[in-house]
Amino acid sequence: xxxxxxKRELAEKIAGEITLSDDPGATLxxxxxxxxxxxxxxxxxxxxxxxxxxxYESGRRESPGIGVVGRLVEGLLAIDERRGGERIRQYGRxxxxxxxxxxVYDLRxxxxxxxxxxxxxxxxxxxxxxxxxQQVSGHTVIDSIEAITRLSTEEFFRLYGxxxxxxxxxxxxxxxxxxxxxxxxxxxxxxxxxxxxLEEENLxxxxxxxxxxxxxxxxxxxAPLDDVLEHLVTLE
Length: 236
What we know:
This is XRE family transcriptional regulator. Residues 28-82 form the HTH cro/C1-type domain. One of its GO terms (molecular function) is DNA binding. InterPro entries: Cro/C1-type_HTH (IPR001387), Lambda_DNA-bd_dom_sf (IPR010982), Tscrpt_reg_HTH_MJ1545_prd (IPR017271). 49% of the residues lie in helices and 17% in strands. It is α/β, with parallel strands linked by helices. The chain has two domains: 6-89, 434 Repressor (Amino-terminal Domain); 101-234, Udp-n-acetylmuramoylalanyl-d-glutamate--2,6- Diaminopimelate Ligase, Chain: A, domain 1 (3-Layer(aba) Sandwich). Strands 1-3-4-5-6-2 form a six-stranded mixed sheet. β5, α11 (207-214) and β6 (217-221) form a beta-alpha-beta unit. α1 (6-20) packs across α5. The protein is elongated.
């Protein structure tokens, strides 16, 4: 691969994580499942038996060397490119916005505004505070802990992409207190927020009140994160 585009950046990131991991097999499995590639498909791409991939991931086979890691990464990227390159483009959007992919999972603008109510339905989200927003024009999916501990106020603004008329989906949420307080520190606030990973009864008591004061729609969902991300990456 030549150049320093998103594909090259992503290849180096994946290869580095696998090579430096205390459990290279588990890290390989994480990236393979993130790309939604089966062991059989990856094995076919590399012209090896699926048991080889299984053995690497389970630790039954000695940790792969740099050459093998390179082939595994190239295989994942080649499969993604044949499918349309969605994962590579997703990483490129996050990279171009100036974020690490462990802070922001996805950031995109829609070609046309989408009904927020429909998005809530698709993500199995329950709205606990209405903000008057009917449509959203994009989304950003964020690891709440990483964002709160690592992002400056200026970087927080970049989560909005091209517009605050979007939904910020915060993952890794316990009660929502940190997110609510963090959003109080920035102005303007997004039009909609979804807290992922908790039920309504476990939400911080003041979360809805803060959302109403700041004027954004607040919803919660406990749907599996993989399902949430799988749906969001299909939106255009």
